[in-house]
What we know:
Layout: H1 2-17, H2 25-49, E1 52-53, E2 57-60, E3 69-71, E4 74-75, H3 77-97, H4 105-124, H5 128-137, H6 139-149, H7 154-182, H8 188-196, H9 200-217, H10 227-233, H11 236-246, H12 248-261, H13 266-289, H14 293-312, H15 319-348, H16 359-362, H17 364-377, H18 384-397, H19 401-426, H20 442-460, H21 463-466, H22 474-484, H23 493-514, H24 520-532, H25 537-576
Antiparallel strand pairs: 1-4, 2-3
Helix pairs in contact: 1-2, 1-4, 2-3, 3-4, 3-11, 3-15, 4-5, 4-6, 5-7, 6-7, 7-9, 7-10, 9-12, 10-11, 10-14, 11-15, 12-14, 13-14, 13-19, 14-15, 14-18, 14-19, 15-17, 15-18, 15-20, 17-19, 17-20, 18-19, 18-20, 23-25, 24-25
Amino acid sequence: MLLHLLVLAPxxxxxxxxxxxxxxxxxxxxxxxxxxxxFVALSxxxxxxxxxxxxxxxxxxxxxxxxxxxxxxxxxxxxxxxxFLSTGLSLVALITGRNTFEHNYRNFAIAIFALMGAMNGxxxxxxxxxxxxxxxxxxxxxxxxxxxxxxxxxxxxxxxxAIYTLxxxxxxxxxxxxLLTVADNSLVLSxxxxxxxxxPSMQVTLLVCFLLAFLVKTPLFPFHGWQAxxxxxxxxxxxxxxxxxxxxxxxxxxxxxxxxxxxxxxxxVDSMLWLGLFTAIxxxxxxxxxxxxxxxxxxxxxxxxxxxxxxxFSLSESMLPAVLVLLVAHGLSAGAQFYLMGIAERFAGTRxxxxxxxxxxxxxxxxxxxxxxxVLSxxxxxxxGFVGEFTVLMSLWDMGPLPALAAGLCLILSAAxxxxxxxxxxxxxxxxxxxxxxxxxxxEGSSIGIMGVLLLVFGMHPAxxxxxxxxxxxxxxxxxxxxTHQSDVATDATVEASADSxxxxxxxxNIAAVAQPMTEDDLRQLDSNLKANGFTDEERASLIxxxxxxxxxxxxxxxxxxxxNEATVNEEASKHE
Length: 577
């Protein structure tokens, strides 16, 4: 029930928000806050509840597919924490959006709840088609929010975002349809078995189709063309959700769908690892020279997610908890920075960091919070970012010193651009005269402050995050096996019993066929091997005598069992006749 609520209830909340008055943003915001707090509470309950799954319900059938598509939800540690980011960042977006979109807050809240439902469905779907449905559904409310509430180039940004992400996912749709024609159904285990039975060239082709969709969504170089303009022109609350939660769908796809399904060669693994590291360095360098505050944060996000992808494809034992902590830490820190940048833009009327400055004197509370969050994003010891980045660095060290050095360079560059960002925004003198806009409210400051406190709590005790991590436990695998093979279960008990008897007879017959006495040549070879390994003459003679006795008795037992089972099968057959 909890999984259904987290996926379906946000869409219901969006519908209920339509009943509120467009002319009364206060009543709309109160209802939106109520829904938002409820969904955050549900996401925390999901983490505390551990791995759980719904019953697999047959949804529909695709023409040409062997099996049905299921409405099937499954929560593991990775998905549960991504849902927490989705609901938590959406709640803060609703809080900060109230002072930014007073006259159209209702429509803003409707789109936020629709986006939340699509994100939750993406992170909880256990069926590949259901996953793809929500993976694509995220695009539409996000594009509507950009076009309706963004900056001067919002229409161009919305179109760029939609075209990149939808076109990037098109090959995955074709590959998924092909897989469904050879797999029993669209669950992970069935797809993995189907992939193993295909030609290597076809495996690589399908893998590339899946990878492309996740590369664009993350994004990694050179598929990042949509990111900077989208994050810059989108309203700041949406930019926080895009970087803190929605972009995680790409990394989530690598972990939850690429690694369990596809056999990966070392060439693919090395290529993805270095692509992630190159993206991390490229994003950090671009952030170092950016003058638009939101573009700087966009490139910063690109750098951190590139590092996360490199960690994923290090394939070390510590990879999964390291990447999960890094994703949660980045979601909280980057989201908080985008919210604060949006408040700074509202306060000063610009997001150009060269024209900001001096906010520490004009708004000391805001500046203190801004500096606090910026320091936390630097991954200093004691923060969740430090735990995530350091453990990813150790995972990359398992691949060799060169990947670890490249990751270390990214950490140095991130410190450089974050300190430059802080210096330009809150210190020094203002580069221009402007009238102060709306200041940060107590509710906004407290909600962003809680995100900073969580970064400290998770840094001091990362087990809060890692203890929830079990990607596919035994119960989930058994459930998927049951769904996958439920069409193969016989309904006639008599036929089932006969088949079992026949199967036992075949097994015993096979045992009798292979359990033959050891020949003299075998015994001589064994004696030679034992002698070479230091056994004495007496020990060798004793062992060979025991083997002779065991071999002859096992063959006799197998022959007796075969005769007994043959008699049972004949008796069953005569009864049915």
